[in-house]
Design a protein that fits this description.
Layout lengths: L23 H12 L5 E2 H7 L4 H13 L3 E6 L5 E6 L6 H4 L4 E2 L2 E2 L1 H18 L4 H11 L8 H13 L3 E5 L14 E5 L40 H8 L1
Antiparallel strand pairs: 1-3, 2-3, 4-5, 6-7
Helix pairs in contact: 1-3, 5-6, 5-7, 6-7
């Protein structure tokens, strides 16, 4: 289902229940997974914590999955390696990438639509604040997924990196008359959309150009070029 039409799936679920009894080994595996809460644990790391043969751990995981007591989630920080999370938890955005990822893959279509819509809102307002763009996007219903102000800011920052929008500070006069002095605002650079071709920014040809997480990306950070599967694929290409 399209991210532009589907409901928000990132909602906390209540713990499930089952009348089926667990074996001693299944219970041990489940307890380890539960202890990791929304971060989950990979099968490789699980084997380090549980003194059980590999084939038995695999068997327990399959059983727990079939009973809907745990679920698999792709970890974007570990090249898509699967993590196992107890059913009552929703995975941390550190694992899933948050709103910008679907099943471990960067949702470029969704991001590009939001970039286009943010650019249009800024262009229509001539000078826009983050709050103004956020409010306009929410009222437009372009996305049925609830987007926070921080997420809209990440989209705008991507436009800045693409050299399609510039960040300025209000002078309190002229076009900034309604905006407090010193407040960060955004203005469009050149033309985009409205029947014309989008302006190609310096980063538009690489994954970083559409990745709103780029502001959190650092060489030794949780998000980094070293662990980014999409950046590696681009380099290989």
């Amino acid at each position: 289902m399209s991210r532009l039409q589907g409901p928000n799936a990132l909602k906390r679920k209540r713990p499930g229940s089952t009348s089926e009894s667990l074996t001693e080994h299944e219970r041990a595996v489940h307890e380890v997974i539960q202890s990791k809460q929304d971060m989950g644990i990979s099968q490789r790391d699980m084997k380090r914590e549980i003194n059980l043969p590999d084939n038995l751990v695999t068997k327990c995981l399959k059983s727990l999955l079939s009973k809907n007591l745990i679920k698999e989630v792709k970890n974007i920080q570990s090249r898509g390696r699967k993590h196992f999370i107890s059913a009552e938890f929703e995975p941390s955005t550190e694992i899933t990438g948050g709103a910008w990822y679907v099943e471990g893959s960067l949702d470029t279509e969704y991001i590009n639509v939001l970039k286009e819509q943010c650019w249009r809102k800024i262009h229509g307002l001539n000078v826009a604040t983050l709050e103004g763009v956020t409010d306009a996007i929410k009222r437009s219903n372009v996305s049925q997924i609830e987007l926070s102000k921080q997420q809209i800011e990440e989209i705008i920052k991507a436009l800045v990196l693409d050299n399609e929008v510039m960040e300025v500070k209000s002078s309190g006069t002229g076009e900034f008359a309604s905006i407090p002095v010193g407040k960060v605002c955004y203005k469009c650079i050149g033309k985009r959309g409205y029947g014309g071709e989008p302006k190609i920014g310096a980063l538009a040809s690489i994954p970083c150009g559409v990745c709103p997480q780029i502001s959190r990306c650092a060489p030794d950070g949780i998000i980094s070029p070293k662990t980014c599967l999409y950046y590696k694929k681009w380099l290989d290409f």
